[in-house]
Specification:
Two copies of one chain form a homodimer. Chain A is globular. Helix content of chain A is about 35%, strand content about 20%. The first copy, chain A, contains ten helices and ten strands. Chain A has a five-stranded mixed beta sheet with strand order 3-2-1-4-5, sandwiched between helices. Chain A has a five-stranded mixed beta sheet with strand order 8-7-6-9-10. The longest helix of chain A has 21 residues, at about 210-230. Chain A has helices spanning about 35-50, 90-100, 110-120, 185, 190-195, 210-230, 245-255, 265, 285-295, 295-300; strands spanning about 5-10, 15-20, 25-30, 55-65, 105-110, 130-135, 140-145, 150, 230-235, 275. At the A-B interface, helix 6 of A face helix 6 of B.
Chain lengths: ~300, ~300
């Protein structure tokens, strides 16, 4: 039996999965991210038996970033300028590929999550552009355009959008070390923790934090809609799991667009336009498996 | 001899061109946009002799918008919700195609301009994503991603990005009828005219208008860089023609990114990263000709 492997390499935890899709999971392992040496060794140990038995035909890696996706670059497949201690300039792709000796596809965690949600969920398969945004420790955006994940100078970094910041309503200066009050600086989980002096998940429903957060998420979505004109947006990560937040965000998106986009998806069907991930916390790792399955078509190896 | 036709359908003027590229122009006509009936009749009269002689094999239309680019839609090729009197819901594509009876490719003026600059200029041909932004009467963005123009729910509307607006520095409320102080509301030619009480082109170099304008253009470019990670940005339209503006914009883009994008294009070679159009005022119409030449490959007909 042919099997595929997926790795979601996160700054906090790694997920390794062997299988052939959401309904054909063979084995999964989740563990905290430690040093590159230790973490990569665990990854290799997990997949090695499948490779040695000749079952595992290809691997996909969905990595935290920034990463180098330029296949002509000497540092292709590296995690580049991350602030995460020890992980700066780590050859994640190369070290896994050399140790396991199978074809490996490599992309950002968020491009993989977008691809996973699009590839495995039947209703999403013809929706292009297709967008995934995650809001948690950081804010990340992945997008499939014209059949492929968007790569360029690097990759999408829309989590760092410059957005309106009303200092009278929200005098907080933001937490982004590069930009202060960019989107991630104002709306990530850590920005909520710092602004309100408590963890986001402990803030009660009636706390003004949630209306402000919905406002920033809506501004981000409006800019993403204007940029990509996506046919569907999946909104994942820990922060949007707050009960009722999706509903407020959708209403604010409509208010901000104010009739400019004359599409029934925005005007009438926004509940099926902006959605939580269907694959739950496995969008990224199942996207990595899909990338492994498509490795030749995408020439992502 | 095989010839191709290009039409740049603007809200102010139309450009019609017959030829095979920037160095093989056969005939060009420019005239003011009046009513749809009169304007479309002039277009048809211009191209008809070439069609009748069997020379013109295909046409491309680069249209002002918003337009319907969904080929499954009953209003494919229509100009949709424009505020331009008389042009609401005009079947520009269908009326030209039926009258001339040749294959016709249809896209936004800015997608066509991006495609034209990429297709005809040798140094741009492998640069993907490739971006074109115009700042004049309105602000428009076109982008080629993974080999094709970006289409989606509609098309890119990044001219309406929500961007930071420092009300202390700039108390002007903006001119966008939908959003007030979105990018187009704050930085289009008409917004400059209204804010300063005189036409942008009459504002002297030392006027603070230009530094503020450069700031807004830089914020727009930063968001476009984060969204698309383009390999090159062409900045066209009337406003960026102001002497010295490009230089200030590039410096501000670097300051706003603040080292976050570790790419030599941004850090060192920004003069060849953000550029004026090589095709001058013909980016759109020559893009339309390129679209006509690629009509089968793109299935844009």
């Amino acid at each position: 039996m042919k099997l595929y492997g997926g790795i979601e390499a996160g700054g906090t935890k790694f997920i390794c999965l062997v299988g052939n899709g959401p309904d054909q999971l063979v084995e999964e392992m989740r563990f905290p991210t430690t040093t590159p040496d230790e973490t990569i060794a665990r990854v290799v140990d997990f997949f090695a038996p499948y490779v040695n038995r000749g079952e595992l035909v290809a691997l996909g890696i969905a990595s935290f970033g920034p990463v180098d996706l330029n296949q002509d670059s000497k540092t292709y497949g590296y995690i580049t300028t991350t602030p995460k201690p020890g992980w700066n300039q780590v050859d994640l792709y190369g070290r896994i590929k050399r140790n396991l000796n199978v074809p490996v596809s490599f992309d950002t965690d968020v491009n993989a999550a977008a691809f996973g949600e699009q590839y495995w969920i039947q209703e999403n398969q013809n929706l292009d552009p297709f967008l995934y945004m995650t809001i948690g420790t950081g804010i990340g955006v992945g997008v499939i355009v014209n059949g492929l994940p968007l790569h360029g100078l690097i990759h999408t970094e829309a989590g760092h959008f410059a957005i309106p910041h009303n200092l009278q309503r929200d005098p907080f200066q933001g937490v982004c070390p590069y930009h202060g009050d960019c989107l991630e600086g104002l709306a990530s989980g850590p920005s909520m923790n710092k602004r309100w002096g408590q963890k986001a998940e402990t803030l009660p429903d009636a706390h003004p934090a949630w209306d402000l957060e919905a406002e920033y998420i809506a501004l981000a979505l409006v800019n993403l809609i204007y940029a990509y004109s996506p046919l569907r947006i999946v909104l994942g990560g820990g922060v949007p799991e707050h009960p009722g937040l999706h509903v407020v965000v959708r209403r604010k998106v409509q208010q901000l667009i104010n009739g400019y986009i004359q599409s029934s998806m925005v005007l009438e069907s926004i509940d099926s336009y902006i959605l939580p991930p269907t694959l739950g916390t496995r969008s990224g790792v199942l996207g990595a498996i899909a990338m492994a399955m498509k490795i030749e078509e995408f020439s992502l190896e």
